[in-house]
Amino acid sequence: MAQASLGDKSFLMLLNHGLLTVGATIAEAFPNMYYFETSCQIQIAAQAGGGKLLQWIRRRST
Predict the structure, then answer these.
(1) What contacts 22, CB < 8 A, 6 or more positions away?
(2) Which domain holds residue 26?
(3) Which of 9, 16, 26, 50 has the smallest count of CB within 10 Å of its CB?
(4) pLDDT confidence of 62, banded at 50, 70, 90?
């Protein structure tokens, strides 16, 4: 199930289960997890501040 959800990506956030990262080696997967978890912690801290958060919308180039 997770493999089908990942497709060609290396990061997956599982609802109510946590984070999943993959790589060709553990040495490749570990920094992915570190940065993924760190970005989630930053997001939670920003939301806890109570201020208005800016949303960045990434547009695909055509």
Answers:
(1) 6, 10, 29, 32
(2) 2-48
(3) 16
(4) low
